[in-house]
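User: Structure please.
Assistant: Input sequence and predicted structure:
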Amino acid sequence: MKKLPCNSSPLHSLTLQIPNNVMLNVQLSDEQRKFTRIIYRNPAILSDKTESWAVEILDLSLKGCMLTVAEDWSGILGRDYLLDFHLGGSINITMELILARHDGQFAGFQCIHIDLDSICELRRLVELNLGDSQILERDLVALANNDH
């Protein structure tokens, strides 16, 4: 099993396993993270203007995601991509992303645009899995202030 790339700053961590592919792993670091991630392993389609790739979502936040991609995937830092995935029922989420980092099979993306329906569903997913409305409110304030 490969480990996800991580920084060496001290983190406070809490992990909870929840049914339906969702595992909550809240990691707070005053130095780097302004958006709380939820672990959400789910298949997705990543595309640019010419190609599409099957990927797996590792985690999501209101401002981006971490994906596993093929080892030989040749993403370009700063390039725009589109991520589509099925959340459940008839709910699909589409995010416009920029590749922020790429290391082997791990690719980190920053969300640059998400439609209103998708952000509402993503917010609901994050809210249900955080169990702490104060953390979600902090994330929403950071998003509204366009913090990175």
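The mean pLDDT is 75.
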